[in-house]
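Recall that a protein's primary structure is simply its ordered list of amino acids. Everything else, from secondary elements to tertiary packing, is in principle encoded there. The following example makes that idea concrete.
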Amino acid sequence: MNEQIKRQKSHNKKQEKHFALITKISIIVFLCCILLIAKIGVQLFGSVPDSMLPDVRNPFSQTTHAKEMPTETPNGSGSETGWQLILVNHSNPIPEDYQVKLTKLRNNQSVDSRIYPALQDMFDDMREAGLMPVISSSYRTTQKQQSLLDEKIAAYKKEGYSDDEAEKLAGKWVAPPGTSEHQLGMAVDITSLDRNEQNPSVIWKWLLENSYKYGFILRYPEGKEDITGTIYEPWHFRYVGGQAAREIMEQGICLEEYLE
């Protein structure tokens, strides 16, 4: 009887080991499938599916992420430049076939999903440096852009300017719908979470010196107003990709000059 019990225990142990081995193999196969799906997603869409991104309800956490720039693939309009280098200004409206896939941020702002990882890395590092950044404006719909322009025009009219004068002055601050970078989803206005505790200029100085490391540039620099057609905006940063950002920074030029 004792011998039979020993044989049964030995058999049970072998079954347990066999089950544990199958479990490990199943986990490895499952993880490989996840990685394969992610790789296919990048190849097809130029980004990882939203479901595999960090929790967008808390995008600017202190979680550490590898500083890898989004894949720089050609845009849908057939341009030789990548999607991250689409030029939008008063003379270059957004292509009619332009589409954007958005990632929603914790404060209900949204950005192009392809720039999300680099944007989060930049915010994480700013916070580690003791800064308190916040995005005050990012992606805008056509309706939102028109509403902002109308509000600015109305404000100038209230100050006593004529209709033509008000529209001209407002256009220096707010781009007409179809000519605003905010409609691309690759531009963000960054300021201080608490202006009383931290002056936004401290944040803008850090961004001016470091944003290129993450693929962002100061889109409307001081002294380039005649070229960009927009006043100096120290808060407005645009994603252009790692290589372009470094070259623009090193040469001290704006996006229009770079694309020439």
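The CA atoms of residues 159 and 166 lie 9 Å apart. The first strand starts at residue 102 and ends at 104.
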